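Residues determine shape. We examine one folded chain.
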Amino acid sequence: MPDLSSGGPGNEADAAAVNALRSSVMRLSRRLKHQRVDESLSPTEMSVLGTLARCGSATPGELARREHVQPPSMTRIVALLEGKGLVRLEPHPDDRRQKVVTRTERAQAMLEESRRKRNAWLASLAEGLDEDEWARLRAAAPVLEKLAHL
């Protein structure tokens, strides 16, 4: 496998593919972020709610690691979400010093509506694809999913 991270020698076609992937993923991500249901939530707050939906309840420290932010930042984010009624803090079952963050039903409904809206927007874009492009998209989706979680 070529080392493309440093811009050093490697297959030019692979380097071009990595560049195109980076550019297109960033552009698509920015456009998807504009398809928000609740404009009062920051992208980071939505990301934390999404992490809770995918991974279940977690301590603020676990959330900070998963979201790649510092623990004090996560403490502030959790406090904002709690103030908006989107998460609740519960006692940790094994450690009285810690709390566990759990999303509320209101957060779940908001996430479902956000997913629905973003999926509908993306599906409308994809209507312009031909059958061969759809086949390639279906084949690429698991690879992109893997990259997103490495």
Residues 31 and 141 are 18 Å apart (CA to CA).
